[in-house]
Amino acid sequence: MYHGLHDKGFQRFYWLDYRALVETFVRPGQALVAVKYFTARVKKPAESKKRQSTYLDALDAHGGLEIIEGKYVHRSVKCRECSATRDRPNEKMTDVNVATHLVAGAIRDEYDTAILICADADLVPAVRVAQGEGKRIIVVSPRGRTSADLVAESDSHLHFSTSALGKCQLPDLVPGQGGIELRRPDTWT
């Protein structure tokens, strides 16, 4: 989701309240039983790490969802043209965590319909397993990103509007643990 918003120049929507966004897709007669946010904490640069930590702390303090973390592994990559090396982050375990929770929830009969905000075709096998357990999978494509394979496998494909993103923001100031004030980063306005 972050990368889709970034690619569109939508930094003003980074302070997103995922529970509020998912609630926009819940139909009358349905009950929202859980919202799970899958991510990995960046290690550098320091400014990015601080902004993300503030955001994750604000999401946690605001409540209404569970944060499940993977990790970033950094590796050196050599440029073919100039031979310079640079550090490249590679997110690990996030898609596996999503797949595991989707399948485990289906097997445990924790949901009837899953709303999956994702554009990762690696989740197609997990979607098939969940559907094999009688579950309905609705894929919501993040802004600017879509996986044709994931959409083709889903029971339904939805989008959200820019106005929905604007309405589903956390408060600019979220009270955190120990009286800490968690503020929307200035660059996210």
Describe the structure.
- Helices cover 34% and strands 23% of the residues.
- The protein has a single domain, classed as 5'-nuclease (Rossmann fold, 3-Layer(aba) Sandwich), CATH 3.40.50.
- The chain has 189 residues and is an alpha/beta fold.
- The chain contains seven helices and nine strands; from the N terminus they run H-H-E-H-E-E-E-H-E-H-E-H-E-H-E-E.
- Strand 3 and strand 4 (85-92) form a beta hairpin.
- Helix 4 (94-107) runs parallel beside helix 5 (124-132).
- It starts with a helix and ends in a 6-residue tail after the last strand.
- It is globular.
- It has a three-stranded parallel beta sheet. Strands 1-2 form a two-stranded parallel ribbon.
- The protein has helices spanning 2-7, 18-23, 46-62, 94-107, 124-132, 148-153, 162-167, and strands at 36-39, 66-69, 71-78, 85-92, 113-117, 136-140, 156-158, 173-175, 181-183.
